[in-house]
Amino acid sequence: MLRRVLLLAFGLLAPLALAQDGSVTGATSSAAAAGYSCDPSKCQLPKCNCASTSPPGGLSPSDVPMFVVFTADDAVQSYTLDAVNQFLAHRQNPNGCPPKMTYYVSLNFTNYTLVTDWFVAGNEIADHTMTHVGTPPQDEVNGNLIALNALAGIPLKSIIGFRAPFLNYSVDTLKLLASSGFTYESSSASAIPVTDPGTDAFWPYTLDNGMANDCLEVDGSCKGQPVLPGFWEFPMYATFDSRGTEGIHLMDPWLDNPNGQTTINDTATLEYMKSTFTDHYNGNRQPFGLYTHPVHLSTTYPGVNPSNSTINMINQFLDWAQEQQNVWIVSNAQLLSWMQNPKTIAELDQVDALKCSTPQIDPSTKICSGIPQNEAGLLSLCPFSDFPFYTCYGCPEVEPTVDNPNPNQVDGQQARFRCASPLLLFPSIAAPPPSACVLTNRLPVPTNCSTPFWDPIAGKCLCTSNDCAFVDNSRPIGANGANLTGGGTGGGPLAGGSSGTPTPFVPFNGRGYVLPSGVWPATICGALGALAGVLGVVGRL
Ligand SMILES: *[C@@H]1O[C@H](CO)[C@@H](O)[C@H](O)[C@H]1NC(C)=O
Ligand SMILES: *[C@@H]1O[C@H](CO)[C@@H](O)[C@H](O)[C@H]1NC(C)=O
Ligand SMILES: *[C@@H]1O[C@H](CO)[C@@H](O)[C@H](O)[C@H]1NC(C)=O
Ligand SMILES: *[C@@H]1O[C@H](CO)[C@@H](O)[C@H](O)[C@H]1NC(C)=O
Ligand SMILES: *[C@@H]1O[C@H](CO)[C@@H](O)[C@H](O)[C@H]1NC(C)=O
Ligand SMILES: *[C@@H]1O[C@H](CO)[C@@H](O)[C@H](O)[C@H]1NC(C)=O
Ligand SMILES: *[C@@H]1O[C@H](CO)[C@@H](O)[C@H](O)[C@H]1NC(C)=O
């Protein structure tokens, strides 16, 4: 049974109210409900992949990497990036590259300039609707694309994934995502252990033959529906405590009481996360997921006091996982790239998506590159009362909304080239006022330019080919390369452990952002005043 539980978190600032969760209480599918059939001789990579518990491309489990997918949902703020960084910033994958992750971003409380930074640092930016609604209408989904493109400079072609708020989606959601040009969706649960013969822990698959997960829950799905050729589903793999199927945990497992106990117990949570991981690792190597609402683990967010024990436990888990051979911490976009063209462990050097590169930009150049030293002095603070944010792409004169995701730029500000021409892309979206497009009427990041090289002030690209000015920092790996375990283990900042080998191009680290003096603290004081009386307690209803 699936219970879409609302995780309400009361905090002193509004974003906690968005940290909501979909959680499962038991199996959400069965072979009978799935009624799934797919002919692998007709459904072939890279465009088609049958739902299967076995690795893609006919590879044997011992020849494929063990992927740990790390995701975060909701607003991007300094607090939430600090929270993610305390788990990832000090780590390396086996090729020496910093791990990348997927951020499912919603509009409310997002600090757009940090989205640019996070993307240019190599992470995946994906869509989680504008205002965090379940079974979202098309404008909520596409408006978010436009806002992320216009205010954070994320190329539309790079926003390929979606996760539904509350994990609440319908067959229509899947259809509208496919029609809006998304490549994958990741809201369904794999809620039967991989050790169970009837497991629904399928590797990511395309919907050429319909869904095979959540069949007991989502009306009209499965038994061959919906047919969306080439559109991928990435199941979210649950973890299971000592009660097995009865003891299921999906998002933020560290906020759950384990083993039917009545309190949080990090020791027990670590035990079952390890045992579920081992079941995957020793079995068919279906990916393992760490699906987070990072605000709950932020040590910098006013009023949230995550326990050190929980933070250390998650780092211990990742340390332990990384000590094992062939474990890679990845974004869903990296996993997708490998799925489409799967390579054995010995051939991983050939997988571009797993490599890391540094954009070479003169530190003294003033450009909105997503690199703080280049952007210094160029950011605008857009002081909206609901949630102020910074952007390098010019402040909109009103708050972006579902009806108007890319409002005109404020008069008198240095003009930016950021008109996304949403009408051309998504006819169903209300057009921004025509004056918004008078300035340039073109895409902010042309398809032949990358975000770090696009100058929205001059309206030109510093580097007009896809790979110029990038330097590859990956180290050799595979049959003739270096070893196949990751590095930088030893816990995060709280553990006081080793910080690992310095990684190239880390534009900010776990403590990189401090509140500037001036407007921002004043805003927080205002928010504190408005919400006085609300307890600073993170709880679950
Ligand atoms: C927003 O971004 C600016 C610029 O990077 C930073 O100084 C500020 O601390 C950020 N605030 C939040 C709440 O994310
Ligand atoms: C899913 O979202 C829709 C629209 O917001 C809502 O009507 C419905 O009750 C939600 N379903 C669940 C199970 O929460
Ligand atoms: C926490 O879990 C561990 C390991 O399962 C167990 O030994 C311990 O008794 C538990 N602690 C509490 C307070 O329940
Ligand atoms: C999100 O922001 C919009 C304005 O863009 C506002 O209408 C809505 O109420 C906000 N939602 C939440 C949950 O704060
Ligand atoms: C990049 O695209 C722009 C606009 O489409 C075009 O004018 C320019 O010539 C292109 N540059 C290269 C190097 O292809
Ligand atoms: C394996 O990786 C570790 C951690 O980066 C490094 O210290 C060690 O020298 C590597 N061993 C080989 C044989 O490359
Ligand atoms: C948690 O860790 C922080 C940072 O190391 C430290 O300042 C704080 O005192 C610790 N809190 C507890 C309750 O141990």
How does the helix and strand content classify structurally?
alpha/beta
Q: Largest sheet, if any?
A: 5 strands, parallel
Distance between the termini: 18 Å
Query: Could you tell me the number of beta strands?
Result: 21
The 3D shape can be described as globular
Instruction: Bin the helical content.
Output: 10-25%
| Annotation field: number of helices | 12
User: Rounded to an integer, what's the Rg over CA atoms?
Assistant: 22 Å
Q: Give the oligomeric state of the chains in this entry, treating copies of one chain as homo and distinct chains as hetero.
A: single chain
Q: What's the mean pLDDT score?
A: 82
Uncertain residue segments: 1-20, 422-442, 491-541
Beta-strand fraction estimate: 5-15%
Bound molecules: 2-acetamido-2-deoxy-beta-D-glucopyranose
Transmembrane segments: 518-538
InterPro entries: CE4 (IPR052740), Glyco_hydro/deAcase_b/a-brl (IPR011330)
Keywords: Membrane, Signal, Transmembrane, Transmembrane helix
Protein name: Chitin deacetylase
Condensed summary:
By secondary structure, the protein is of the alpha/beta class. The chain has helices spanning about 30-35, 80-90, 110-120, 140-150, 170-180, 265-280, 310-320, 330-340, 370-375, 420-425, 435-440, 520-530; strands spanning about 1-5, 25, 65-75, 100-105, 125, 160, 185, 190, 205, 230-235, 235, 240, 250, 290, 325-330, 355-360, 380, 390, 455, 460, 470. One 2-acetamido-2-deoxy-beta-D-glucopyranose (NAG) binds near residues 308 and 494.
